[in-house]
Automatic annotation (TrEMBL):
It holds the Pfam family Xre_MbcA_ParS_C. Residues 50-110 form the Antitoxin Xre-like helix-turn-helix domain. One of its GO terms (molecular function) is DNA binding. It comes from Aquiflexum balticum DSM 16537. This is Putative toxin-antitoxin system antitoxin component, TIGR02293 family. Residues 118-165 form the Antitoxin Xre/MbcA/ParS-like toxin-binding domain. InterPro entries: Antitox_Xre (IPR011979), Xre-like_HTH (IPR046847), Xre/MbcA/ParS-like_toxin-bd (IPR024467).
Length: 168
């Protein structure tokens, strides 16, 4: 059942990514705006990510990413360093685009989720891992390290080690 929901979300994310990139008007970025880009392809192409960050992530894309990730609205407010009230205001506005600093964080959390799903296979196991103190991360919960890019890098490195069977 959960995989059906994830699959539907991925389909919506694919459409949203294509729409976002077609609307991007950044000079110097060469990519085929006619080609349909999937969400998975987007997350592996740093140039596309840079274009999206600089354009600003629209709330519609964030809303789908928020549904795809294991993070609560409070988690998102903490990661983005904005209030939950602001997030609710953005939702009410049809045309809100996040600033590049927030757009980057949204994409970072999408990357963590993608890697976590590859490692653990489902969102519930990922959520449990994120909320459990981890010896390799100084007995901190991985979710507590995600607020800044250095912490996110530590979490991603730990996910890679787990994926390769290297347990500390």
């Amino acid at each position: 059942m959960a995989s059906v929901v994830i699959s539907k979300l991925e389909s919506k994310l694919d459409k949203e990514v294509s729409s976002l990139l077609k609307k991007s008007r950044l000079k110097g970025f060469s990519f085929d705006k006619e080609k349909e880009i999937t969400y998975a392809e987007f997350l592996t192409d740093k140039m596309l990510i840079i274009a999206a960050i600089r354009t600003g992530i629209p709330y519609s894309f964030f809303d789908l990413v928020q549904d795809y990730t294991p993070f609560s609205e409070n988690d998102w407010a903490n990661f983005l360093d904005i209030s939950t009230k602001s997030l609710q205001r953005y939702k009410a506005s049809d045309s809100h685009h996040f600033k590049p600093i927030h757009s980057e964080k949204i994409i970072e959390m999408a990357e963590v989720t993608k890697m976590g799903l590859e490692v653990f296979g489902n969102i519930e196991k990922l959520k449990l891992w994120l909320n459990t103190p981890n010896y390799a991360l100084g007995n901190l919960k991985p979710i507590d390290l995600l607020k800044d890019s250095y912490g996110k890098d530590l979490v991603m490195s730990e996910l890679v080690r787990i994926n390769h069977g290297i347990l500390v």
